[in-house]
Amino acid sequence: MKKQVYNTLETIQKMNEKYELKTLEEKTTFIYGQMEEFTLKILFVGGFSAGKSALINAVIGEELLEEGQRPETAIASEIIYDTDEYIEAVNGDEKKRYELKESAQINIEEYDFLIWHLNREELKKYQGCTIVDMPGFNSGIQEHNKAILRYVGRGNAYILVIDCEDGAIKKNMAQFIEEIKHYDNNIAIAVTKTDLKIDEDVEQIKDNIRINAEMLFMDQVSMIATSKYDDSVGEKIESLIRGFDQEKIFEQEFVPRIYDAGIRCIDSMETYRKGLKLDLLQFDKEIETHEKAKQKLAEKLKKEKVKLERQFKNSVGPSVINDAHNALQSNVDDLANSLKGGEKNFSMMVNNILRPVLLESTRQYVEQSFEQFIAGIDFSGMDIDSSLQGIGVNALEKYQQANNKIQEIVENGDKFNVVYKTLTTTLAVVTSTIAPWLELIIIFLPDIFKLFGKRNQEEKMRNKVDAIIPQIVEKLRPEIQKSLMEMQEEMVQQAEREIGSLIDNEVEALKTARESKEKASVEFDEKVKDVEQDINEVKNALEQIV
Predict the structure, then answer these.
(1) Which domain holds residue 211?
(2) How many Å separate Cα 398 from the centre of its chain?
(3) Statement: residue 267 has pLDDT above 50
(4) Which of 25, 172, 276, 362 has its CA 20 to 30 Å from the CA of residue 135?
């Protein structure tokens, strides 16, 4: 299937070059580059000192990663095979190189994550994979958020590392599972430190965890039990990694995008075919009309965005805030228990409750509102002629149809990643937006604590949580509303670019058709037959991957 995905993209690229569709050619070239660079990121996730680094050291074949590092200094570390050994420290678009012997000198507070380039024989077998050592659940809140939000919904696989001493899936792991189920469904479990238990206890613990996991996932989950002293630990980890369907995850990542590119290519070729019927004098007029329609469409989107602003302010914001309040209120007992462990534990609990809710609720309500906004755009009241109006309406309809078709592909069983909802890539916008909300919580919670003083009794502790929740919500409210206004502005601009590019594609096709007509190298009927064959070739290629 992976070969077929490449073949389909090559077919689309061939047509883009033939019909000189420069905009689409850039799009497919970019997709091809990402396909070539694609690696399956396998995230090792668990609590502090659960044994993640020990397992990864077993994969590497030596004790390279520090085990038991302090929770507050954790950072996501990617590990890849490379003949050139060094550490790449990444902060946004900036990268700095360190030698392996300089690892202790890296100030990780300055970076988002590290990439370890290692020339290890054991890693050769995992070429095409990136091993990721994630911060523990009880690492610093900001570090954990930064790591989670970087990888969520990016077509990853997760190995959940559970300390055998825990005996079952603990609350924080269960919360994380519920969170990532919205975005990724490639999950396995490694039970560690089995050397501390007798065999009978290990089997009982495995059974408990398996029952917990199947209840959470509603499906069977691959599982191993091991320790760093297990002679076969490397083979066991390899079996988990090999158990992930890398080709399927590759399809999840790229098939919807290639399908979108294919539909745009077909549309442009159909415009080319229609253009062959025009005489040379009509071409310039038709091209000028398309370019005017693009301008009018941009003006219409800007005028109409006030409706989206109103929707975000009156519906999306209150809905997100209400979901956040309900999530906190439904976990009052857990919050009260966490409060007994101090402000840090309480802050972590609040963070872990709110992060998935804010992420999923914001994505859901934003997508719904944006789809309604696009569907509600009406050109009938504009002072433009019917040809301009027709081009604008046609571009909007194509934009919606492409989104709807991709949605249909995504919902076709479990074949494609559940996160690929719309061409507006809402999730990428949302993940960058909610990080400041979570940081705000960390900052203001200590001040809220001061308002209520110390209370130790069980009932008073619960009452304190009941009093804190409205304070949290009220602190979040203005920040959420402000961010949503920025988000809707970005999404309108993105829609303008996407819809405008559809018109650009048609203009490029018309220009190519005009050049063909001027050359008059072949008869009209032969040209039409040729483009129809090309259209069918792309359609057949798309049918092979969906």
Answers:
(1) 39-244
(2) 24
(3) yes
(4) 362
